[in-house]
Amino acid sequence: MVQLDFDATELFTDRVGRVVGLVHTLRDADLVVLPELWPNGGFTYSSWEETAEPLDGPIVNSLAAAARDLGAYVHAGSLVERHDDGSLTNTAVLLDPEGGVAAVYRKMHLFGFSEGEPSLMTAGDDIVVVPTELGRIGLATCYDLRFPELFRRLRDLDADLVVVPAAWPLARVDHWRVLAQARAIENQYVVVAVNTVGEQAGKAMGGHSVVVDARGVVLLEADGSAEQVVGVEVDLADVATWRAKFPVDADRRL
């Protein structure tokens, strides 16, 4: 997990170059995960139009090259995607070890209560789980954590692991920890939730990126203030083991 510090004084191109360079150094990883809207800023709405890119733009292409270099999956966090009709989406991209686009998820639940994301972006509709050599990976983003129905659908699509990039504020970081752990416990899969630190438009970001296993055990948690790269080995075979040992899904009524 790459928990990034967002500094609004850092030039956009410098930030992208710095982060892509950092990804290139992560030689031992099978899966690298970046936070939500790390190039554009999760709350710096005024920059979104200027910094938006199509999926075949420089950000995704640069990270695709990094994925090829590493021979690893790279979850690009999310970026502001510009579509041909001019609309914007909060788009997460999973790149495979050959640099191809393995999956794309456009954030379904837009945060801001009629301001920010809902006023500037179009919500996605697709629920995404993709088979990989690592396991079946589901995609969600930040505010989605508050909507258990989405995570139940990811379970129904047999996700083994769900990646959740975020720009989650410090003011509600206690919710972040609880929700990430709850989604893992409820659905008996691994949750990898990667947050941002620093300050965005006057809002302190919460950090505490976390990996929770299918049994609900927190395997790793970053601190709340520093940019850092942290990693942990996850046994995805244990997902099936735990589901067989504690078959709660068989008792679902709804």
Number of helices: 7
The shape, in one word, is globular
* CATH third-level topology: Nitrilase/N-carbamoyl-D-aminoacid amidohydrolase
How would a textbook summarize the main sheet? 6 strands, mixed
> SSE order in H/E notation?
EEHEHHEEEHEEHEHEEEEEEH
Low-confidence stretches: none
Instruction: Provide the structure class.
Output: alpha/beta
Q: What fraction of residues sit in β-strands? A: 15-25%
Question: Mean pLDDT, rounded to whole units?
Answer: 97
Please, how many domains?
1
CATH structural architecture: 4-Layer Sandwich
Widest sheet: strand ordering: 7-8-9-10-13-14
State the distance separating the first and last CA atoms: 34 Å
CATH superfamily: Carbon-nitrogen hydrolase
| DSSP helix fraction | 25-40%
The CATH class label is Alpha Beta
Task: Write up this protein.
This protein has helices at residues 12-24, 48-51, 58-70, 117-120, 148-156, 173-187, 237-245; strands spanning 2-3, 5-6, 31-33, 73-82, 88-95, 101-106, 129-131, 136-139, 161-165, 190-194, 197-200, 203-204, 210-212, 218-221, 228-229. The strands form 4 sheets. A 6-stranded mixed sheet has the order 7-8-9-10-13-14, covered by helices on one side. The protein contains 7 helices and 15 strands. It has one domain (2-251): 4-Layer Sandwich (Nitrilase/N-carbamoyl-D-aminoacid amidohydrolase). The longest helix is centred in the C-terminal third of the chain and has 15 residues, at 173-187. Helix content is 26%, strand content 25%. The radius of gyration is 17 Å and the shape is globular. With 254 residues, it is of the alpha/beta class. The termini are far apart.
